[in-house]
Amino acid sequence: MHVLTNDATKHYENGEVKFAESQFSKAVICFVKAINLQPKQTKLYVRQAEAYLQMCDFQSAAVSYRHACFLEPQDTSLHTRLAFIYYLQGQCLFDKGMFLESLESFAKAAELKPSCRSYHFRSLACLTALGRYTDCVRLVSTWLEVDSQTADLFTLRARLHKQLNQVRMCYYDLRTALALNPLCPEAGSLLAQLQEASESARQQAITRAVSGRFTEALSKINTALDYCPDTARHYIFRGTMYRRLKIFTAAIEDLVFAMELNEAGDQGAEPSGHSQEDQREDQRAVQEEAQAQLVLTYNDLAVQCFSHSFYADGVRVLNKAIQDQKWQSGLYINRGDCFFKQDNWEFALADYQQAKDISPEDQAIWNRLAVVHNTLGTHCYQEQKYQEAADRFSEAIKYNPGVSRYYENRARAHSKVPNLERCQEDAIRTLILDPTNDEVVRLLTSMSPGCSVSNVLSSQIARTVKTQLLHSIQACKQPAASALRTGSLLKKITLSGDTDSQSSEDQPIKNVCQQIVSINQQVKRAVRLAIERRPPLEYDRPRLAPARTLEKEQSEMGSKNRPYHWKKFGRFGEKST
């Protein structure tokens, strides 16, 4: 045993001599002979590894150090040296472009010496060279969870997110990095690039929205939000696009979030040299814009509910809108229309009156007030409350004096009170506006027995009534012309019964209605002519009537648009003309 020890010592000393003479291969042979004689001597493996290391045989050096570490696991210096060897091996492989093998070496080095950040960063460099950015993000995230969070690490992860085209995550990492170190130049520069890209996408979205391509504008503003997801104005713009596309739920969510984000402070805005007062003014402007768009969204949603007969839902939506904009008359008009369709006449009247107080010259409100008062008057008439009905019809006439049926309804109410003088005046007004109303003709002749309708209409009373009627209609048209010059952005619901507030878009329908009225007048003339020409009951002649030409029939029936003349009735015993 003593002989083996001496031989091993002799080989070790020879190896040290060869090592000093830089004959590393012969030194390795000497150390190998010594290890064969004494395999549990740690220093022999260490010296062998150092000789291999001088020969750049990193793999063999690592094997030798692993044996040494196995023999003395408590010696941390051995583990540190082995980690450094793996690091050198990985760096050589990296320089040769063998990134996968290099990654394996750096990973072993980091495992042996986890506190050395440079080994981890070299692993990150290999992953980046391999294009495995997701693994890079996972590695950096692990560092942020385990180690202290620094601006450099967040900036590094932001760059990795950008490589993965995860610009939203990149933005949030940069904001965190600047919160930790406001003077971090790399984070500030990268954030400025994101803001520039966001503004470019927003300008493209505006261009497409102006040309009516809302879907494309929505796509572009989504891109802008990815680059700067904390910009309130971007959410307002996207909410507006959702509203134009009738995606109301998403629009409401965006606009509400924009207001919340603005109240907390717009983190996505570019830094400027403006004073705090200017910044507060800008925040107020953003808040008002978001609130206005939210009201428009609520209103458009209510219009859609109304068009699908969901009147109660329309009322609930408009209640929210009115909470934000109490001075917008269009909201009260539309809510009143929903109440009207639900037969809640009093609520509808209250909303119309509130709208009138806000916009006293809006003719659309006046027409609606007339409709609801006429409806309430009709119900009073049916309940035999004739005086109350007459008062309601008077209110309807006050707001819209050009509708014949309001005068007809009031005439019937006056006939029940009775107030025959006012009944006659209203009947005259009805015939002035609607000369074909036969029911009012009968009502008027019943109050003036022995007088023809033409005599009544040509009397002094009729002329006075006509002058008053024309004056009231003309006076009502003046605020209507003024209201046309002051438009509103709110969409307005059109009541089916409000035939007096038609716009220019309804002109084709109006023309068709006029044609129908013309045809009805011709039919009435034909019926009247047939009644006048009916044969007597006692007839002793042949039953064959003389032949009549088509032209003569049409002439007598007034098919050539010949003006109609009322038949004049003389006094009893006189021949009528």
TrEMBL record:
Gene3D superfamilies associated with the record: Tetratricopeptide repeat domain
Basic and acidic residues bias: start-end ranges: 275-286, 540-555
Span list, region Disordered: 265-286, 540-577
Protein name: Tetratricopeptide repeat domain 16
Zinc keyword on record: no
TPR repeats: 8-41, 42-75, 83-116, 329-362, 370-403
Pfam families to which the protein is assigned, alphabetical: TPR_16, TPR_8
Keywords associated with the record: TPR repeat
Species assigned in the record: Umbra pygmaea (Eastern mudminnow)
